[in-house]
Amino acid sequence: MNDDTLNMEVRKYLKKVGITSQREIEYAVRKAVESGLLNGTETLEAHMTLSVPALKIDLKIDGQIALD
Question: What is the Cα–Cα distance from 61 to 46, expressed in whole angstroms?
């Protein structure tokens, strides 16, 4: 195993997850505000699950997203 390769590959994967997640959340929030489902001042509960079956990783990460 090459530690530098592992580090770079993990970073690339996490960057992809971060960018994709941010884009999807922002799109969904804007759509929900425009449709009246949200008023734009809520704090949203968020849950992310990281799963790597070969490593037996199944990690749930909880958080909040404040809109105002």
Answer: 8
Place of tokens 């960057």: 15
* Listed residue (32, 27, 28, 22) closest to 63, CA to CA: 22
Number of domains in the chain: 1
The b-or-e profile of 21-53 (16+ CB within 10 A means b, else e) is eeeeeeeebeebeeeeebeeebeeeeeeeeeee
Q: Which domain holds residue 60?
A: 3-66
3-state secondary structure 38-53: CCCCCEEEEEEEEEEH
Q: Mind listing the pLDDT tens digit for each residue in 10-53?
A: 999 999 999 999 999 999 999 999 999 999 999 999 999 999 99
Q: Which two tokens stand for residue 39?
A: 């008023």
- DSSP code for 40: S
